[in-house]
Amino acid sequence: MNHAQLLAELAATQQGAIARHQLPDQSYVWIRRASRRHSIHKYRLLGFFSRLLGLPLLSPVQNFGGTAAIATEVHRLTQLRQAGVYVPVLLACQDDALMMSDLQSDTLEHKIWQANADEAVRWFEQGIQAITLVHERGQYLSQAFARNIIAGEQIGFIDFEDDPIKVLSLAQCQARDWLCYLQSTAILLNNKGRLNQARQIWQATANSLPAQMRDEIYRTVMPLRWIRHFNHRKFGGDTVKLASLVVLLDKNG
């Protein structure tokens, strides 16, 4: 039975939107089924505030679910793979589902979380290097959070149900990648007591970015510099995450 036949058979009985399966040859694959279409209404408020504040990187990337999300992921996996980016191999697809290879390693989020402090910084730096390579190939990611980065012998990327190029320029898509990555790792490094070391690594990277992209990143976050003083669990997890991000991006330390 080929991959297309297996996809049709497994997708028909799969309960969730995405699940891991073992094939008869003992290999593992992931199957994503079309989920319920997402309402447009939940995107309108964020879009309003992004326009009001003049911060395009906050513009929502609409993911309506359904077969459109499957088509988007098929397109992005193919595009990134052709550019030499380490993403799952698309094995089969149909209108309402796709099958892709399993990168067979842990997420970068988990690697940083379980590592000692020095190892956590090294994983953080490897993530930066991997995203830099993606951008050097003229590409961008989708949701470049640490939970969507696979950290093994190679750094890989997953989750491409939406496509930010529909609402942002290429430079803005790449700047958004950095914000997603830094936002998702800053709190982990803060918990390890290594935010200062991580900031030095980021600053070296930021200095090599095109000035327009670098300015876009800082223009999005720096109006919130005041929130760095609320870096305590009593203010809630989301506040601490944002405070950690501001500290990480603050050029003045």
Can you describe this structure?
This protein is an alpha+beta fold and 253 residues long. It folds into 2 domains: 3-101, Phosphorylase Kinase, domain 1 (2-Layer Sandwich), CATH 3.30.200; 106-249. It has helices spanning 3-13, 41-53, 66-82, 108-114, 117-136, 170-191, 195-208, 211-221, 237-249; strands at residues 18-22, 28-33, 90-94, 97-101, 106-107, 149-151, 155-157. The strands form 2 sheets. A 4-stranded antiparallel beta sheet has the order 1-2-4-3, sandwiched between helices. A hairpin with a 5-residue loop joins strand 1 (18-22) and strand 2 (28-33). The longest helix is centred in the last third of the chain and has 22 residues, at 170-191.
With strands numbered from the N-terminus, the spatial order across the biggest sheet is: 1-2-4-3
Distance between the ends: 58 Å
What integer value in Å does the Rg equal? Answer: 19 Å
Q: Output the number of helix runs.
A: 9
Mean pLDDT, to the nearest integer, reads: 84
- Structural category is alpha+beta
Largest sheet: 4 strands, antiparallel
Number of E strands: 7
Q: What spatial form do the alpha-carbon principal axes imply?
A: globular
Q: What's the helical proportion of residues?
A: 40-55%
Beta-strand residue percentage: 5-15%
SSE succession: HEEHHEEEHHEEHHHH
Number of domains: 2
User: Which residues sit in consecutive blocks of at least 5 with pLDDT less than 50?
Assistant: 45-54, 232-237
Protein name: RIO1 family protein
InterPro entries: Kinase-like_dom_sf
